[in-house]
Specification:
By secondary structure, the chain is α/β, with parallel strands linked by helices. 33% of the residues lie in helices and 18% in strands. The chain is built from six helices and seven strands; from the N terminus they run βααββαβαααβββ. A four-stranded parallel beta sheet has the order 2-1-3-4. Strands 5-6-7 form a three-stranded antiparallel beta sheet, covered by helices on one side. The radius of gyration is 21 Å and the shape is globular. It starts with a strand and ends with a strand. 19% of the residues are buried.
Length: 221
């Protein structure tokens, strides 16, 4: 099974998550058995589950990271960009650390629409980058490739270009066209020039059942 870690924004949120885990272990014997096995003393420390906040997750990696945003509108209904250390100078670096701890995927948990997050007046870039990341995660979750490309291009207008429209077929060499034709002849769907930077994957084979997922990348050198 994949290893799992949880990243929160601050110590109170960390404690809330840990309390919820402890409560689930107390009430669910199957969950407790699974957690105990994952956290057994004979397992490597790097494979055991953890719950940490932005300040102390540096250097830790797991297969799956659950990133808990843990903020919501206040009692007056207003959503405020008050994210603790993320609002400070250099706070965006902590965000970068948090969202790069996963070897396989990040599961983002948030209780508000990122479009509603007011970050225009924040002094430092941390909250702005958080909003960009939340919007990016929303677009990825919705399999909206065009929106993903627009968000990435906004963050790095000089190095990230929008990918070709899915209906476009671009090949860098005759070999690529031959390999793509052979795969399609076997019944596979193939996208070309996949990626958002100057380096792209020549051919990517789509999963036959899970829409928007790739199962294989091919470089034709």
């Amino acid at each position: 099974p994949p290893t799992v870690g949880v990243v929160t924004f601050n110590e109170p949120q960390l404690q809330q998550v840990q309390d919820a885990i402890d409560a689930r272990r107390s009430s669910d014997a199957d969950f407790d058995a699974l957690y105990s096995a994952a956290d057994a003393a004979d397992r490597l420390l790097d494979d055991r589950p953890f719950v940490k906040n932005l300040e102390n997750v540096q250097g830790d990696e797991r297969d799956v990271i659950v990133f808990s945003v843990g903020y919501a509108p206040a009692g007056d209904g207003r959503l405020r960009a008050h994210f603790g250390s993320l609002n400070l100078e250099g706070g965006e670096n902590r965000l970068n650390v948090a969202v790069t701890r996963a070897r396989e995927k990040v599961v983002l948990v948030a209780s508000f629409d990122p479009n509603d997050l007011p970050v225009e007046g924040t002094a430092n870039p941390g909250p702005k980058r958080l909003k960009d990341y939340l919007l990016y995660a929303q677009a990825v979750s919705g399999l909206d490739k065009d929106r993903v490309a627009r968000i990435l291009a906004k963050l790095d207008p000089g190095g990230m270009e929008a990918p070709p429209h899915p209906s476009s077929v671009l090949f860098g060499s005759p070999l690529e066209a031959q390999v793509a034709a052979a795969l399609e002849g076997l019944g596979y769907a193939v996208d070309t020039q996949v990626g958002f930077s100057g380096y792209r994957i020549d051919l990517a084979v789509l999963h036959p059942r899970r829409k928007g997922e790739y199962v294989l990348g091919i470089e034709c050198d």
